[in-house]
């Protein structure tokens, strides 16, 4: 056990999963979030539990990692996941061209993708476009992002090592030479400034990571890249259904509770705080969904919203940003930025939140010469309702 | 979708009990949560409210909008013809700050060995290996709207906890567990404390109809 106090800035899935891992390994952790937990990118996720098939053609390592992580999440957070598997469907000859390489790539990434006869696909999902030419089964699912994240928070609180401060906004990072000594926050609940000290600081603020890093004088390349999601009022499938072609806009339908969600689009933004849906996205997404499920056109509009992806790297063009990896990186600011006790977690996806926490905690243990092993993949998380057990966390 | 920009007068109850007014220009197809974001980011960073999913799924953003329990993320600005919107925290919960309430008093009474239920669609369809039943999340998003709307303010665990007991009874197979759940439902602060005004049914944003669930419990007594 250690007595190091880690301060995590950010309250999304990654920050919370990192807090959980650190707490299990004996660290004292204070998590600081400027709003409610998961009020940035995590909560607004369309909810796909990624088995990695979508990434298999582009990056086998990410695909393999998604497969492993989605299986772990199904095991440790069963209450936060609808596991009904997923299907990739081919609608035209180009899609068919894509198919064989796709299945092969999935298998190489340990994803058990399996082509099934289209007649069977219609048995599974009656509303599918009857003109699909092929279908491939994959182990996707749907996450409740809020309940998944607070399940991790419940796990952290159960260790008695965690302190969660919501509505605390970091406004200054206070350095002494090569060390960060504290952060200055505004406590929006009490409307006052506070100083929070720590031994180690983690910047886990997703698309805000560049802003937080700059408070420490660090130049960190992050491209907030929002996308639109459109939800309709009726659930029309149980499986997640994706287009069997190169990853692009409007290529995934995610059922969730009583809703059907189609995602997504992508644009560039300077300000991850405000993500206004471009009206043309709604027509585009509607049309894309109808290609997969013709009945989509009869569904009642529920809402459309947008969230900023936390892409790592910088690019001035949308095409460049589209090509940025969905992989995550853990950056030790000792290496290039001359700050001994701060790391940043950047990039990544909802499905890999636990892995991000593990790698970040490994890095901190290594910095301190500790060999505490990660246990987060082996312990079933407490019910998300445990988060409320001790009353409000602010 | 048509873009129509309007001026809105948003009045927010702060935790000192006073209302604070904000004039904002917003596209009318946007929601109250978008308006709150706009106010926080561009006008007053001290405004506090809960939000996460922005599509009516997490249940965090419930508040009183023009005196009715609503999810802020599912309340569209174009609904307010006079462009005036008053936002207050839910009733019956401890106020933490502005619109932020502590819903732990409700959550601690909720039952549910699992948050999943069998999906209504494709019940009789074939299923792939490894899938016994198609599943989906429960309807109740635990937003607290029903408890806020309920006229019974004392010695009552509230509509959503009772609805959760009803749901759990239908899932449990163990008679002992069912008896325990019934005991909880018929305690003094349970079913009999319900005043049968059914304001919960109207307030619920996700068609749980807690009042109906309470009635179903009455029948099994």
Q: Would you spell out the secondary-structure blueprint of this structure?
A:
The complex is a heterodimer of chains A (394) and B (221).
Chain A: E1 5-9, H1 13-24, E2 28-32, E3 48-49, H2 60-76, E4 81-82, E5 86-90, H3 93-108, E6 114-116, H4 118-124, E7 134-138, E8 141-143, H5 145-158, E9 162-165, E10 168-176, E11 179-187, E12 192-197, E13 200-203, H6 209-215, E14 222-232, E15 240-243, E16 252-256, E17 259-263, H7 279-292, E18 301-312, H8 318-322, E19 328-332, H9 333-337, E20 342-347, H10 353-368
Parallel strand pairs in A: 1-2, 1-13, 2-9, 5-15, 13-20
Antiparallel strand pairs in A: 3-8, 4-8, 5-7, 6-7, 10-11, 11-12, 14-17, 14-18, 15-16, 16-17, 19-20
Helix pairs in contact in A: 1-5, 1-10
Chain B: E1 5-13, E2 19-27, H1 32-42, E3 62-65, E4 68-71, E5 84-88, E6 94-97, E7 100-102, H2 104-107, E8 116-118, E9 135-137, H3 145-149, H4 159-171, H5 175-185, H6 199-203, H7 210-220
Parallel strand pairs in B: 1-5
Antiparallel strand pairs in B: 1-2, 3-4, 3-5, 6-7, 8-9
Helix pairs in contact in B: 4-5, 4-7
